[in-house]
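Budget justification aside, the reviewers requested a transparent look at the raw inputs and outputs of the sequence design task funded under Objective 1. We therefore reproduce one unedited record. The lines immediately below are the structure tokens for a 244-residue chain.
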């Protein structure tokens, strides 16, 4: 039996909606989009890929018993919450909210894009951006360097992979999920743009993903390694979730 199995989640098969001010994709069931085959994966419940028009956003709304993180791909995002926190996130920044028994927050996109530069810690290598409390390098102070802490068995890695480059990631959990960010713009048809090929040493499994595509990864044994290779004509921004 193969040590790993990939199951594609194609971009055009996701839920999507165009609200003029908001163009969004839903990997899992969310709001009006409901699909029993794609409701959650381990502790991962939501992956929404949102494009928010400048000077608009999500008004104040409430959550409870969720851990929510926002990762900014372009532009700037202002975040406010009922704990009195206000912060402006720039390209590559991550904001983490642990809702506990209840919290209200808002998110608003600021002016049009000012910068599209990538951060060096993600260039052609994995950067750990979210990890469980108590994991190596996790710091609980706000705006600290290092991965944001969560109370769930979930670790998130990000990379910006150049043409012809490849990176490996050894899984610690029983499953994983990979997502290629749709950096070339909103496309609700078959995925295009950047292209990556994923494989695993010792396995015949192989899959090509384009922008907006993702894949469920079923890890067959401890120490299974994922190889991600950029086989396209431009850089690709990629997330990998390591899940229990």
């Amino acid at each position: 039996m193969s040590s790993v199995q990939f199951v594609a989640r194609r971009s055009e098969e996701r839920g999507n909606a165009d609200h003029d001010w908001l163009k969004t994709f839903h990997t899992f069931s969310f709001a009006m989009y409901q699909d029993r085959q794609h409701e959650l994966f381990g502790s991962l419940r939501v992956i929404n890929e949102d494009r928010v028009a400048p000077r608009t956003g999500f008004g104040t709304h409430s959550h409870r018993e969720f851990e929510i993180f926002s990762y900014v791909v372009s532009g700037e995002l202002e975040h406010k919450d009922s704990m009195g926190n206000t912060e402006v996130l720039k390209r590559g920044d991550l904001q983490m909210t642990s809702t506990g028994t209840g919290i209200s927050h808002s998110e608003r996109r600021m002016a049009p894009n000012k910068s599209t530069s990538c951060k060096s810690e993600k260039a052609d290598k994995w950067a750990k951006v979210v990890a469980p409390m108590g994991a190596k390098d996790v710091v609980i102070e706000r705006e600290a360097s290092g991965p944001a802490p969560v109370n769930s068995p979930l670790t998130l890695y990000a990379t910006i992979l150049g043409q012809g480059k490849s990176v490996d990631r050894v899984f610690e959990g029983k499953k994983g999920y990979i997502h290629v960010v749709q950096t070339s713009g909103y496309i609700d048809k078959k995925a295009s743009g950047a292209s990556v090929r994923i494989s695993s040493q010792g396995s015949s499994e192989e899959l090509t993903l384009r922008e907006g595509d993702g894949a469920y990864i079923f890890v067959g044994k401890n120490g299974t390694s994922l190889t991600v290779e950029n086989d396209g004509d431009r850089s690709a921004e990629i997330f990998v979730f390591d899940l229990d």
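The chain has a mean pLDDT of 90. The CA atoms of residues 132 and 150 lie 5 Å apart. Computational costs for records of this kind are itemized in the attached budget.
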